[in-house]
Every structure is written in C-alpha cells, then in structure tokens.
Design goal:
Dihydrofolate Reductase, subunit A; 8-stranded mixed β-sheet; RibDG_C; DHFR-like_dom_sf; 5-amino-6-(5-phosphoribosylamino)uracil reductase activity; Dihydrofolate reductase family protein
Length: 194
C-alpha cells in the first residue's frame, strides 16, 4: 500500500492560505497573501529538495493544481523543483474539473476525495506526496489517509485566513521523526502517524 505525505507551509496560528503571492488565494477577502517568501533560505531549499528527491507521485486538490499548472507547468527555468513537478505523475482530485490536460503527466481523479484517494492508495505504485491543497489534506486527514506530515511552521501570526485544521478533525497522534530550524526561524517538523 502506498503512503501519503503532506507538506504544508503554516503560520503559528495555523493559517495555510495565500503563502506565495498576494493574488494566490484571496477567498474570503484574505488580505495577507504572499506571507511566505521572505522566510525562504538555503536551509529550507535543502530540506524541500530532500522530499523532492524521494521517488513517487503527487496528489493535488483542484485549486492548487490549477495554480501550480499555471506557475510551474509553463516554467522553463531549469529549477530542480520545476523539473520535478513537471516530470512527476500528478493526480488531481476534483468533483468539478472537466479534464487534467492543462499540465502534462496529470491524471484526473473524479469524485469524493476520501474514496478516490483510498482506492489510489491501495493500488501498487510509488508513495504519494501533497504540497499545499489544504482542503484535500483536511478531507484525507479526516478519513485517516495521511501517514506523514512535514510542517514548515513560520514565525508569524496572521489572525485570519484558512487554517490547516479548520473544522472537525479526528483525534490522531503523531510521532516527531525529525526537525530542522532555518536561519530565518522556520521550524521544519516531520511527523509520522502512530
């Protein structure tokens, strides 16, 4: 059975919305988009590269997949993250997306996330990784399908915005399997489900 690993960029108050750009995710009138890049540094890049070096496929929710396909799918910059993202098989979970042809190596999983991803997880193949896709992560967490988390905990609070565990989440215990603190104060914590 495949395992599912989620990598989430999060503030101290649990916000995961609008990390990269001011216009990335303004749902609900979110005014703080672009809060993350000022915390990027070499240590964070090295730690993220370790995850990218592991073989496996990727899993996305519709919104994140659409955003990534626009930003990364058209990039030709030679960045190793661009190369990895474009080469990986990308499963996009959606009830509304018509097709996944906008980004090469993408496969549409139609239907409810818990059911379609549970079926994918049970099939033979490489492990699955999620970057972002907070709604998908919440749904899969509630269904007990996420095995590991890498949380990049940023040293700021925003006071508003979508949080990683908005709404009900089942009691789940995790074991800290590793952590690194970057020079800019981001704690990169890795957790495995017990």
């Amino acid at each position: 059975m495949r395992s599912i690993k989620a990598t989430m960029f999060v503030t101290l108050d649990g916000v995961v919305q609008g990390l990269g750009r001011p216009d990335e995710d303004t749902r609900g009138g979110f005014p703080h988009g672009g809060w993350g890049p000022r915390y990027n540094d070499e240590v964070m890049g090295q730690e993220l590269a370790k995850g990218m070096a592991e073989p496996g496929d990727m899993l996305f929710g519709r919104s994140t997949w659409q955003d990534f396909s626009t930003v990364w799918g058209r990039a030709t910059d030679g960045n190793p993250f661009t190369t990895h993202l474009n080469a990986a098989t990308k499963y996009v979970v959606s009830r509304t997306l018509e097709d996944a042809g906008a980004w090469r190596n993408s496969v549409l999983l139609r239907g409810e996330a818990a059911g379609t991803v549970a079926a994918l997880k049970a099939r033979p193949g490489g492990d699955l990784s999620i970057i972002g896709s907070a709604s998908l992560v919440r749904s899969l967490h509630a269904a007990g399908l996420i095995d590991d988390y890498t949380l990049l905990i940023h040293p700021l609070t925003l006071g508003c915005g979508a949080r990683l565990f908005d709404g009900p989440a089942p009691l789940t215990e995790f074991e800290l399997t590793g952590s690194v603190t970057t020079p800019k104060g981001v704690i990169i914590a890795r957790y495995a489900r017990r």
